[in-house]
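Chain and conformation:
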Amino acid sequence: MDDLRTTLLTFAPDDRKEFLHFLQRQGRKQKGRLDTRLCELLLHPRAYPTPELLARLYPTEPNAVAYYALRKRLLRSLTDFLLLRQRQQDATAASSVRGLLILAQYLFETGVPRLAWNTLRKAEKLGLQNDQFEALNTVYNLQIAQAHHACADDLTDLIRRRNLNKKAADEEERANIVDSLMRQRLRQLRAKGRAGESFDAVLADTLREYDLQEAFARRPALLCRLVSIARSAMLVRRDFVSFAPFILRCYHLMEKRHGFAPAQRQYQLRLLYMIAHALYRSRRFEETTCYLTHMQALLAESPRTHYLEMRARYTLLLAATYAFLRRNHESIQLLEEALHDTRQPLPLANELTARLGLAFHYFAEGKFQKTNQVLISIGRSDHWCEQQMGLEWMLNKNLGEMLTLLELGHSELALNRLRAIERTVRERSPEAEIGPYAYVLSYLVRVRDIIDNPAAATQPAFAEQVRQMPTFLPLVREDLQALSFYSWLHARMMGRPYYEVLLEVASAPPVGQTVH
């Protein structure tokens, strides 16, 4: 695996063109041409081995020493390009503060202290606006070191500002530690398939240990991080009914007490997305669209980096919500447009999730041939999907493929897919019948009954067996994905269209939620 090639292949088509133009502007004569040529070869769909790269770059006499020097030069150019692009795309980021610092240091060295101090004040203001505490440490240290100039700020006040920032920077570091500890704990909980009740106590104890309770309550960046950790715990337990009031309370309390400055827009967007997602999973679909509308308005005013980060999530969630508001055709339109947008292509993980979502929406319309085509377009193996997207994502895709094949009348192919899913579950969970994915096995038993005898679903005995699915029905009350698969069974039992049954089942609130 060529690491430089892997890095270059992460670029979107427009980014590749821009980088090649950057190389051409930076290069000089033969060296510049070779930089560009190596980049083009590494970006080629075929992965050339090193001997072939040498032969193409140096046809008369392959030169390994020059080749590796060329790779180092290309890597430096790549780093310069990314730094420049970061500055261009987000003028308020830490890179801008560092740029002002470099300018101030140069001005001090060349004997222009008045202009250097004005530059430092700009860097300080920019850092404060964007919570760039680490960069501000360097700003304050340089100000203190240059406090002997007549144009300098008061030294006592400088030390006070430096100490306040040091406290905030220390909180940021401790928050990073808590974040890593909690995510490690969550990975352990998922691996063991256990419920997450103990996670709440671990989180509370860790916050006390690192003295972060108050910090999370007054800073949007830390609040966003705390809520993200809590959301991960809810994903383990699928307890969105409890999580939605928690995040709503946190958000509106922050909004009322401190508000969200324009520089804190990225954290506000993330919080709004988590609120909308929690409401969606709690089946409060009308409320979900309200918060997504608010999120859309903020996205329109956001810097390009924040917009690109959140646009895909916003689109996927809005499409999923529309499906439960009898606006499924709008869901399809949204996802089709997102998947065919060559100017702003979706990141790979979002693209695959969009394709899986689009397949669901076509399935809801009864367009099974289109559903099958979309699922085929995912074009990844089960092993790859599990490694990159997670086991549950892969299982949902395979279950969708199985039901689609059955609806198309390909019973044998559906049965083969069913057996493959069973095999996967049993391999991942030795005690599958009582493991975390036992509900999948109980569901597959009923689907196998239908494959063996399509009329079985309309029999009273089948309905009774569905009602007695102990590992599946509790999940249906908590999880919309499980509800979607259950609704297909229910539609077969009732002989009614799947989409209509899905909407009826989804209209019943989850356990623990009050009907308003």
